[in-house]
Amino acid sequence: MKYIVSWTVQPGTFNAAIARFLETGGAPPEGVELVGRWHGMSGQGFAITESSDAKAMFQYQAQWADLLAMTVTPCLEDADAGAVLASLGKR
Question: Is residue 64 a contact partner of residue 9, using CB atoms and an 8 Å limit?
Fold first, then answer.
């Protein structure tokens, strides 16, 4: 399953977040594949990850929780979302 991971750097943690990112490369834990990551210029960013292990996704969020406010949202690709929507029929 794919996930949209979005974050905002917590007030007062910018330098610590930069240091951790430069030290670790922001690599997710085992069981989570990083598909892509984008950084905004306002302390916000997002990533697309893939994992079949919800525990590994929770670990990914938890390892940054002291520095970043993160939201992890399961998501579907267009074809899968379209199939679900088509199955609803017309209303």
Answer: no
